[in-house]
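Bench log, entry 3. Co-assembly request; chain sequences pasted below exactly as received.
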Amino acid sequence: MSAYGKVTPEIVEKFKEIAPGRVYVGEEINDDFTHDEMSIYGKAMPEAVVDAMTTEEVAAVVKICYENTIPVTARGAGTGLVGAAVPIAGGVVIGTTKMNKILEYDLNNFVVKIQPGVLLNDLAEDCVSRGLMYPPDPGEKFAAVGGNVATNAGGMRACKYGATRDYVRAMTVVLSNGDIAHFGSTVSKTSSGYSLVNLMIGSEGTLGIITELTLKVIPAPKEVISLVMPFEDLDSCISTVPLFKKNNLDPQALEFMERAIVEKSEKYVGKAVYPKNIDGVEAGAYLLVTFDGRDMDELEEIMEQASEIALENGAIDVIVADTPPKIKDVWAARSSFLEAIKAETNWKDGLELLDECDVVVPLDKIAPYVEYVYAVGKKMGLQVESFGHAGDGNLHIYVIGDDQISVEDFKAKADAFFDDIYPEATRVGGLVSGEHAIGSGKLKYLAEAEGERNMELMLGIKKVFDPKMILNPGKVCYKL
Amino acid sequence: MEILVCIKQVPDDSVNIKMNPATNAPDLDIATPIVNAFDTYALEMATRLKEAIGDSTITVVSVGPDKAKDAIKTCLAVGASKGYVVKADATDTISTADALAKAVAKIEEAEGVKFDIIFCGKESTDCASGQVGTMLAEDLDVPVVTNLVDIEKIDAGISAKQETEEGYNIIEVAMPCVVTVTKPEYEPRYPTIKSKMAARKIPIGELEIGDVVAPAVTVVANAEPPKKAAGVKINEETLEESMAMALGMMRDAKVL
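Structure output for the full assembly:
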């Protein structure tokens, strides 16, 4: 790989002319810029951080980096889970959190134009206040939407509405030489050559830096209802999942969770709403299902049908969350799983002893795969927690190190664990990542799953966009 | 035992409500109507009491428009077995308490029962005046215990655990009585598919109360609360300097 240039004091001065008061070097750089939410993949200090406010500023900074062959890593809110925003080759980090304006709505074409640093929560709330919905809803609501696009993040509602990719119509991108390009358009269909927009989505800042987005929105569903379905065991719980769609029901979200993690999360949230013992029967696993519709009459019919399906398939009972506070409470437990896990993790040498995997498997393989994963964890003496989007087969599996283990031993054990369970996911027809992306953390597993030829194709695309290999080096398709 | 629970339908208080400049009133359209949270605690406490002593009936009553039937229906799925909506020209606490008191007499007559305990939430989450429960007790000329977090049936009536700013009072009171309920240690239960479907079949009674006392409160104007001033960021070289700066500012503002 090419030898990278250094950020010299002269270059820093040039950055300061571009973004006065928003350039940080050395000790001025906050430790946050050295890692994302998964510190186990390693920390790395950038040589300079530039908080950009406009496309032109990003372009000017990237142009200087291009001329001097300096690595550039784009960073949103830093909530990623695979190290994608960590500057492992040093160089410059361009922060986009100050590019946080919702620019305009076009309600004739149902699109909204935003800057990439807008937080998902802010966009979602702004849409709701206008009777609209931006359907993608990744668990981390304080992620930047630009980061969501760069990782093709999914979320709970992907079950019905699809992932972030399905809502990106157009974007402004700063290319590796500092040129400004526009990909896509507000139109809803296209058969116009290679889709550059779609190449950018999920490319994790390795092909260009997104500086403006045009996103599709939809009219907000009028009514929503959530059902909690307790089952005695995971097997009957998961085997119910395909039955909803088979019966023409289209849940907005469909999550499975085991009792242990529900209890942990309820303790963390401070509110216990999931039934544990129903008329003497102990619940072992739950489905959480949300439906949306035009009015309550329509929803009540759906609710009855869905409940009948679940009860016939072994649900102990069906609990209904039919008011906004109740819906909020049943989802609060689900949305806090990661925080609940993180509240109890151990830290060693500034690193959190936590690793995760985000595989996606065919629906009928969820139950046997989860069982397999637990068996491997048990064999290796690792604490394993799992939950996931049952509706689309996307599983989140966490391994947690205890307070005795050293960082090296934990890493070795976690690697051995993942070396076992990733190939099993591929074997049953799954993929490496459903929504967290590859970054540097999952590169090895992507390469194994995709094979040499596919990885060469990806690297070829990378080289077309970024001949000097300065954009987020060492991520997605090649190791540094 | 015959139990009555008074409920109010209020806008969902988790939604940030703004003023509508056209009407100069709060824009409530964006907030789903729900049962007042304190009333859901009252119903849950009543339901637990019913489960503890057995052989009891819970009736729910609400002064409000036709739409309030939706609120009553949700109560019928989580413990109540009868429901009444009361139509009356009641716009403040005095007229609402009066309408409720008159409704109590009408329901007692219609059902051929006498209520032993009347539960109210301690206040509503929209107006939060916290007066209807005590005014109702006054109108009915029965004792009232406020701010309950627990209740128990005893031979002489009930034993009520009242939350105070310092701790708790245990108060014994004879029935009939009114109690108002604050947040207990537990959460209100969720309806199940079976209880919801059963609730749908229960007819909700309608009462017209034509002769309520005139409201004593008139709304003169609506205004938004003033916006809070942005905070000051203190970011001195050292922690000690930052502390000194903060203390100095508090001293200058005469809050120390």
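The radius of gyration of chain A is 23 Å. The mean pLDDT of chain A is 94.
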